[in-house]
Amino acid sequence: MSPLAYHFPYLPIPKFRRRDRARKRLQALVGDIVRKRRAQRDKPTDMFQSLIDMAYQDGSKLSDNEITGMLIGAIFAGHHTSSGTAAWVLLELLKHPQLMRETRQELDDLLGARGEVNFASLREVPKLENVLKEVLRLHPPLIILMRQVSEDLQFKDYTIRKGDMVWACPPLTHRLSRLFANPEVFDPARFEPDRREDKNLMAYQPFGGGRHKCSGNAFAMFQIKAIFAVLLRRYEFELVDAPECYVDNYSDMIVQPRSPCRVRYRRREAASFASEYGRQGKDAAQSDGCPVHTAKAPPRLSIKLDEQLCQGHAVCTGEAPLHFSMGEDGVLQINQTQIGPDQLAQIENAVRYCPNQALRIERGDP
Ligand code: HEM
Question: Is 98 in the same domain as 225?
């Protein structure tokens, strides 16, 4: 995680030697599993197996070294980013007691003391979601996003040449006042429907953007909602140090709160819950006040997919299985582009929950 590893990955220093020894051991472990799986008849259908099965265009398979590298990449992509973000959600809630009360109340109303945390119950938790989005705006864990320029381009007085690297810096972009009102203020309400300050996809970039936007973004949002649906209903927290002591550590490549970062916790009293199971299970989409939902459906509507943005999360296939399915090649297929009036609510959910906003509803025929 250190910038040193990025700039001089092979320096002969003790921690890099430990890293290289650990990688050799890991590769040996991975190699054993690969060989066991190759011999196995019923293969599991997980990511590990996909890496074992996939082949280059010339038919050659990935080596143990490459599979190990891909696994390390995937685990690192998901782990430090998520743990740092989860830590910041708790810290920001503790720094803003009114937001903590409102967020906890939202979870209590939804799930009560004993309601089950599952995919359906956590689909819409707007207050917690907005807190999470605001945490990602002010504390994006990845602060350098790189792209190689594919053709010469002119920006003001600069010519940026094909082959050059350009970097985006989310914590900086997120603090531009022409993109976000009062950017230094922690204000989750900026994402409410009347403001939607995240609607400019290239301005709000905690997960990057375009074709290579974080492919774990839907999972990341969901897992953090799940973590807080459990933590805030089980425990009470408080900051140990003064609020201003909790700051980002910008000296690492993946930015997290600076250690020591201490909070105190105790088990929550059951008596503090108004209801045992909350209103979980109720489909929030039925009463969301969305104008397209509540208005009479226009005569002809169709689905448009931006193939450049779709990463195959397949959320839409769950929301509207009649219209969407995944092909065997992992590419999304639209089975039917036209939308009947009784299918509108499902398609709207597919559009709304698409992690990459790759779907649109358009008036007119497909
Ligand atoms: C709060 C949590 C997370 C944040 C803030 C985050 C952020 C990012 C960012 C900024 C990128 C670079 C995108 C770009 O260059 O445009 C990225 C890439 C990626 N992330 Fe995440 N990530 C998170 C969680 C996860 C999780 C949980 C997974 C896996 C389950 C994951 C898997 C990946 C992968 C595979 C890529 C590379 C995508 C590509 O190059 O096509 N991330 N992430």
Answer: yes
The tens digit of pLDDT for each residue in 210-251 reads: 888 998 999 999 999 999 999 999 999 999 999 999 999 999
Pocket test for ligand 1, best of 207, 221, 224, 256 (most atoms within 8 A of CB): 207
User: Is residue 214 within 6 Å of ligand 1 at its C-beta?
Assistant: yes
Q: Residue of the nearest CA to atom 1 in ligand 1?
A: 82
In the reported structure, the alpha carbon of residue 82 is separated from the centroid of ligand 1 by a whole-number distance in angstroms of: 10
Question: What's phi and psi for 31, nearest 5 deg?
Answer: -60, -40
- Domain end among 272, 294, 309: 272
Q: How confident is the model over 77-128, as pLDDT tens digits?
A: 999 999 999 999 999 999 999 999 999 999 999 998 888 888 888 888 999 9
Domain final residue pick, 213, 237, 272? 272
C-beta of 142 in contact with ligand 1 (< 6 A): yes
Ligand 1 midpoint to CA 206 (Å): 9
User: How many Cα atoms sit within 13 Å of 122 on the Cβ side?
Assistant: 19
Which residue is closest in CA terms to ligand 1's atom 17? 214
81: CA distance to ligand 1 center in Å?
8
Shared domain check, 112 and 133: yes
- Whether the link from the prior residue into 355 is cis, omega within 30° of 0, is no
Q: What is the mean pLDDT of each run of 10 residues along the chain (366 residues)?
A: 88 95 96 93 90 94 95 90 97 97 95 86 92 98 94 94 95 97 98 93 93 91 96 95 95 93 92 78 44 49 86 89 87 85 86 88 75
